[in-house]
Amino acid sequence: MLKNKGKELLFVQWLLLSFVLLSCINHAHAGVTSAFVRHEWPSVDIPLDNEAFAVPKGYNAPQQVHITQGDYDGKAIIISWVTTDKPGSNQVRYGMSDGKYDFTAEGTVQNYTFYNYKSGYIHQCLIGGLEYDTKYYYEIGDVNSARKFWFQTPPKIDPDVPYKFGIIGDLGQTFNSLSTIQHYMETGAQTVLFVGDLSYADRYEYHDVGVRWDSWGRFIEQSAAYQPWIWSAGNHEIEYMPHMGEIIPFRNYLHRYPTPYLSTKSSSPLWYAVRRASAHIIVLSSYSPFVKYTPQWRWLAKELKRVDRDKTPWLIVLMHVPMYNSNDAHFMEGESMRVVFESWFCHYKVDIVFAGHVHAYERSYRVSNIHYNISSGSPFPAPDKSAPIYITVGDGGNQEGLAQRFKDPQPDYSAFREASYGHSTLEIKNRTHAIYHWNRNDDGKRVPTDSFVLHNQYWGQSRRRRKLKKNHLHSVVKNLPRSERL
Ligand SMILES: *[C@@H]1O[C@H](CO)[C@@H](O)[C@H](O)[C@H]1NC(C)=O
Ligand SMILES: *[C@@H]1O[C@H](CO)[C@@H](O)[C@H](O)[C@H]1NC(C)=O
Ligand SMILES: *[C@@H]1O[C@H](CO)[C@@H](O)[C@H](O)[C@H]1NC(C)=O
Ligand SMILES: [Fe+2]
User: Fold this and answer.
1) Which CATH architecture has domain 32-47+158-196+270-467?
2) Which of 61, 158, 341, 435 could cross-link to 427 by cystine, CB 3.0-4.6 Å?
3) Would you say the CB of residue 112 lies under 6 angstroms from ligand 1?
4) What pTM does this model have?
5) What's the CA-to-centroid distance between 429 and ligand 3, angstroms?
6) Is the predicted pLDDT of residue 35 greater than 90, yes or no?
7) What three-state secondary structure class fits 424?
8) What is the pLDDT at residue 462?
């Protein structure tokens, strides 16, 4: 009796395994390398006197206004702005109706130097205790040059609440960057997930570095003063410039772009997490230590345990350097982080990993390369239903231009790639479905180019299948090793 049961089990195991293998093969269809070649468009920075960088009118008027989430769950916001003539007021006046401010909050002010550049007065004000899903109006600055803005708080954390994110990377401050921002603003997305390389001010020297951080702050204000940009840092934020006596990494960036890292018990503003609507967003730093036992590694191990897919079904990771990239530019630079974190991403069923760095667009299939261990296992990426989709959107439009040379032939892990400027949107519908778009800036027009319906990795198809299997083959599945369960 027992013996027969064993045979039966083996047979069912074999059946299940064949099914796994077959469905893997189905997924391994060839990727697309888009033949689209955009027209010439100079990748030069917009001149400083252009209206894209206009200084607001009025003595000591606030400029470079931007906001970001201020806590773990979206009930707080950090408002930042710069005044140039004198420190002025640190106060934010805010409320739920335009021009009538029932509340005030007091921020901080700081200034710093970078080589011989002296920054303006950088104000930062954390406002907590906000209502969810509410439009707030706010006013900053001294009375005679005050400026008014507004923002909408996210809905309360809820597994089925819809929310639309935009994803922008490697933006810079060229005419292409302007096109990206303007197209992004047409999408109606509510929050930007920024995947690093902000201003490209480090392409300048001496006094001009600080000047170009300031112009970038004025440039993004059209969006960033009205909705949060969730920041992650790239290599252009490092600004290690010993010839100018500047040797502390990330100085300009850290002075200007605060993050709510303390609310997730992170020890650095460079890696942290926020929960917003139905998404848990984890921000990593490609240019900070991440190997075993480092603070970032320890923090991520804990943060992944805190993820509760019953509350926030969507698990999104942001980093600068892509782990799966088939462009000549920055090829294999993400390997070191892949070796350290990829198995966690599969284990925790991350939905999407967004990265930048490569100035092109690329999307992967669900693949992983976690079985190779130097002495054994296949050294090639293989289809893996537990794996995230890796998306590179380093195509915001900075002055370095596009990364036009892709590896040929296109590797199996690469689903779609094109060297054009653009941005992405992720429109979460409910706990199971989200709609993803990559929008190419086709010389002035916004052209949706790569899109798909994303099924949630925890609540989506595989979970339904798991449930089905559980009902029909409960005893069998129980006996399979975890990695072979569907
Ligand atoms: C900050 O501003 C004050 C007042 O204008 C000035 O005295 C000080 O030198 C500045 N500090 C730095 C680090 O630039
Ligand atoms: C490498 O992987 C193989 C196959 O999974 C395993 O048998 C072996 O013990 C692993 N080696 C090390 C050093 O972990
Ligand atoms: C989730 O959204 C998708 C796409 O809009 C829809 O087809 C599906 O029925 C929704 N599911 C639930 C449970 O509402
Ligand atoms: Fe980069």
Assistant:
1) 4-Layer Sandwich (3.60)
2) 435
3) yes
4) 0.90
5) 7
6) no
7) strand
8) 58
